[in-house]
Write a structure and sequence with these properties.
There is one protein chain. This protein is 27% helix and 23% strand. The protein contains 14 helices and 23 strands. It has a 6-stranded antiparallel β-barrel with strand order 1-2-3-6-5-4. Helix 2 runs antiparallel to helix 4 and helix 2 packs parallel to helix 5. The longest helix is centred in the middle third of the chain and has 17 residues. The N and C termini lie far apart (68 Å). The relative contact order is 0.08.
């Protein structure tokens, strides 16, 4: 049997409990044992190493325990004021505690009158967790030391001294000899670093140690990796789904892979991907995108440079990883639509959810699914939220929809966001022609010329079609929204112009005047002014970079002193690159029988 010198006595004000050394200066105990640490000193002593005396300690990790006996997270990590020359506790796999025949578990506690400590013998009742948190314990014999105050925080050990859990509920009496303990895998939810110390069924020890070495390296260099995407990357398409609330940290995601994912290779995949990111190598996606710059000539130049570099090595726009929100008529009535949310990764579409809804319910459903879809992307992918809409929805203010009930950020200020026409998105002719147009745009490496469709234009739609074809247009800018210039807008949708831009709220000019006239006292023509600002803003921005550039414009408009008066406030971007969708889009299925 190993030395028992790692058993610790914890004192905090009037509270006395137990704990156990897990590293040269770290001790685990219950959060309720040190609940008074804000008012009273915490001291730690080791009964088997009395020569060390009492050591001061501070709480460095708190599991979130809220104060009641039935509250979860009753875990605290103490940091000693100096390292101690003692061997820390050793750990067994958590399931050993409840593998039939259930073994005897020994707890070393410090009830009143036993400053030197005493032992209690218990065993788990079952492997079934109480409220997803605790294992229930019963006395090994009908006599002996009950679990009373002073045992909280004690390690529950096997006869050979290896730790399998921690006693948290010390409520035994001479007549009722029961208690509760937190098993190691539950403790690791609140302190993920514990996972490095604990053997995990199905996972190799060397893989576990490598994983935690990489987590320490990530913390040291301050590299930010999305834990949710990294988890999805590790478990694959058929692994356990991402938990509803996701993971707040890389450590939490790693612990979940370690404890909850049965695939023995998942830890290796998580470590491999994290290592690639730390080394600056993206094996399954493009390099992480730079932060969107503030709008203006300098940011446009930066965008152009970034795109030129991307074009030199391949398709810049095809590097986007779309999250697709596809809306179509359901066939169940004029107000009913089918909404499908999916994510594209490695050239494949990953469905996230499909629902038939009334139009009024679409926004809330989409808000609840976009985060889930983004988590399906590769960890370093450039996300692009794409709304594939029926033609009459193209002017919908999707960029102004809030991210969620508890996050009022507009979607267009949280992601690069574009729309496209559903019929155009499914047209084989246009997809083929648009691919050729994008290749020309990539090779040019230039900014995007705005082919203007003016407010009140007298140009006939066939003439506009010829102009856009002959001019090899990459972008058509409209001074008014689609409903105001319906025929001209439909021309833009049915020729291979990759990008259309327009103001959602339009112009107050009289469309039938020639030339168009603004109301008295207004600027000459707000629609023409919009196109002027648009042309200036996009002069040096390649088409592939427009989603990111428009994100920066939306952020600037949202931050303006008078957002509603900013020229880009209601900017709508139709951006269409079929190479972002290498798999032919499947038809939305109708739930109507």
């Amino acid at each position: 049997m190993r030395s028992a010198s790692w058993h610790a006595r914890i004192a905090c004000g009037n509270e006395v409990g137990a704990g156990f050394l897990v590293a040269g200066h770290r001790v685990l105990t219950c959060a309720h044992v040190v609940r008074g640490s804000g008012r009273a000193a915490v001291t730690v002593s080791f009964p088997h190493a009395r020569e060390l005396g009492e050591l001061s300690a501070s709480v460095v990790v708190h599991g979130g325990w809220a104060g009641d006996a039935a509250d979860p997270g009753d875990v605290a990590v103490l940091e000693l004021d100096r390292r101690v020359p003692l061997d820390p506790a050793a750990f067994a796999a958590p399931d050993v505690a409840y593998t039939d025949p259930y073994p005897r578990l020994v707890a070393y506690g410090f009830p009143e009158g036993y400053d030197e400590g005493t032992l209690a013998e218990y065993q788990a009742v079952s492997g079934q967790l109480i409220a997803g948190e605790w294992l229930e314990l019963v006395a090994w014999h009908g006599h002996g030391q009950p679990l009373v105050a002073g045992f909280s925080g004690a390690a529950a050990t096997l006869p050979d001294g290896r730790v399998v859990g921690m006693v948290t509920a010390a409520s035994g009496t001479p007549d009722v000899r029961k208690g509760r303990m937190l098993p190691l895998d539950v403790m690791a939810r609140y302190w993920p670093e514990l996972g490095e110390l604990v053997p995990t069924p199905g996972h190799r020890d060397d893989a576990r140690r490598r994983l935690y070495a990489l987590l320490r390296r990530a913390a040291e260099v301050g590299r930010v990796c999305d834990p949710n995407r990294l988890y999805v990357d590790a478990v694959g398409a058929f692994g356990p789904p991402l938990p509803t609330d996701g993971f707040p940290t890389l450590g939490a995601a790693a612990a979940y892979v370690q404890w909850e994912v049965p695939d023995p290779e998942a830890v290796d995949r998580f470590a491999d991907r994290l290592g690639e990111l730390l080394d600056g190598v993206g094996a399954s996606g493009p390099p992480a995108a730079p932060t969107a710059p503030a709008p203006g000539p300098a940011s446009a130049s930066a965008s152009a440079s970034a795109s030129a570099s991307a074009s030199a090595s391949g398709s810049a726009s095809a590097a986007w990883s779309p999250v697709v929100v596809e809306i179509d008529h359901s066939g169940a009535g004029p107000d009913q639509v089918t909404v499908e949310v999916s994510a594209y990764r490695d050239g494949r579409r990953r469905p996230v959810g499909t629902r038939r809804l009334p139009r009024t319910g679409v926004r809330a459903y989409v808000q609840g699914r976009i985060d889930e879809a983004v988590a399906q992307l590769a960890p370093d992918a450039d996300e692009l939220v794409t709304f594939v809409l029926p033609r009459e929805w193209l002017n919908e203010a999707v960029a102004h929809w809030e991210c969620g009930a508890e996050d009022s950020t507009p979607l267009g200020c949280a992601y690069p966001l574009v729309v496209t026409d559903r019929a155009r998105h499914r047209s084989g002719r246009l997809r083929h022609q648009l691919r050729k147009k994008w290749r020309k745009l990539d090779l040019s490496g230039r900014g995007t010329e705005v082919h203007r469709v003016e407010c009140g234009t007298r140009e006939r739609p066939p003439s506009l079609r010829k102009r856009l074809w002959d001019g090899d247009a990459g972008l058509a800018g409209y001074a008014v929204p689609p409903a105001t210039a319906r025929q001209h807008f439909e021309v833009g949708l049915t020729v291979p112009v990759p990008v259309l831009l327009w103001p959602r709220t339009g112009c107050a000019c009289d469309w039938h005047e020639d030339p168009p006239r603004a109301p008295a006292g207004e600027p000459p023509c707000p629609g023409s002014a919009f196109l002027d600002r648009l042309a200036d803003s996009l002069a040096e921005v390649p088409a592939a970079e427009l989603p990111r550039h428009v994100l920066s414009l939306r952020l600037a408009a949202d931050a303006a002193d008078e957002p509603d008066r900013h020229w880009a406030r209601d900017l709508q971007l139709l951006w269409d690159d079929p190479r972002c969708f290498p798999e032919t889009t499947a038809s939305l299925h109708s739930p109507v029988a």
